[in-house]
Amino acid sequence: MTTFLGTWETPGKPAVETAWRAFQGGANLRECIEQGLAVCEMDPTFLAIGLGSLPNSDGEIELDAAMMDGENLECGGVCSVRGIVPVISVAKKVLEETPHNLLAGEQARRFAISKGFTPRNLVTEEIARQYEKWRAGVFPDEYMHSTSDLHGDTVTMLGLNDGHCVAASSTSGLAWKLPGRVGDSPIFGAGLYADDEIGCAGATGLGEELWKAMASYRATRNMEAGMSAQEACDEVIQHMIRRLPNACVMSCVVLALRKDGDFGAAITMGKFDLWVCQDGAVSTQNFER
Ligand code: ASP
């Protein structure tokens, strides 16, 4: 069985469908997930990933992305990158073509350019309008992410084929964040984790709290201790609710996929849609608290 999971109502579907199409075309698991995330990054209607996503407090879009391969625990990520898409492809190049795990900011951008990526303006007219509205104080929340009215939709993907798993994520982070702020999404153990001996896990939501909880590593360790994927996610969320009060101010989600194909997800507050593709059969599951 080949399984792809993708987060949030709107981007999760094209993410898993694209990954499955790539799989049918002969792509390996890393490539499938890269393509699933890249499709979302290039769609300007998805407001928390790639082109046309919600900017920082200076009005600039800063992107984070990462990929972890469960076969050998290899990691590759980029954070605070401006003017480059798809950043998941840059993250994959860090994984495959450097001895490092994570490149940041201007240096990550220069690395991307050296690998053939062309810098471009990611701020669409719609995003410029949203930024002006934020500056005018139209939005009540200080920060926003996926469950806000603007439907950000960071995309975290998990993939599994024949006992091999890959986890990845791509995001513009919190809207209106301080320039240079990095959340959980490109941080291994926080926003994603993969280990073929166990399975993989990912997160989306308020990155500061997910990082403090090391949500993805904790979910993976829970599965290693014998929990189902659902029990593993529930335990992480219970822990966060108990220990991290802010995790209940803005929602936090963890999702997990065990090496035998068992999967689950849980949320601290609000609603969450998980898209699932199992051997091409696409469905959605709703989570709420
Ligand atoms: N986890 C992301 C971050 O904090 C945001 C999100 O998932 O919506 O950067």
The helix fraction, in percent, is 25-40%
Note the total helix count. Answer: 8
Low-pLDDT ranges? none
Q: What is the rounded Rg?
A: 17 Å
Query: Could you give the distance between the termini?
Result: 30 Å
Mean pLDDT: 95
Q: Which strand order do you get reading across the main beta sheet?
A: 4-3-2-6-5-1-11-12
Strand content: 25-35%
Task: Please explain how this structure is put together.
- The strands form two sheets. The chain has an eight-stranded mixed β-sheet. It has a four-stranded antiparallel β-sheet with strand order 7-8-9-10.
- The chain has 289 residues and is of the alpha+beta class.
- Helix 1 crosses helix 2 (29-41), helix 2 (29-41) packs antiparallel against helix 3 (87-97) and helix 7 packs across helix 8.
- The chain contains eight helices and twelve strands.
- The longest helix is centred in the N-terminal third of the chain and has 16 residues, at 9-24.
Draw up the topology in text.
Blueprint lengths: L1 E6 L1 H16 L4 H13 L21 E7 L4 E8 L5 H11 L4 E3 H10 L10 H11 L19 E7 L2 E8 L20 E4 L3 E7 L1 H6 L2 H10 L4 H15 L8 E7 L4 E5 L3 E8 L2 E8 L1
Helix pairs in contact: 1-2, 2-3, 7-8
The structure holds aspartic acid.
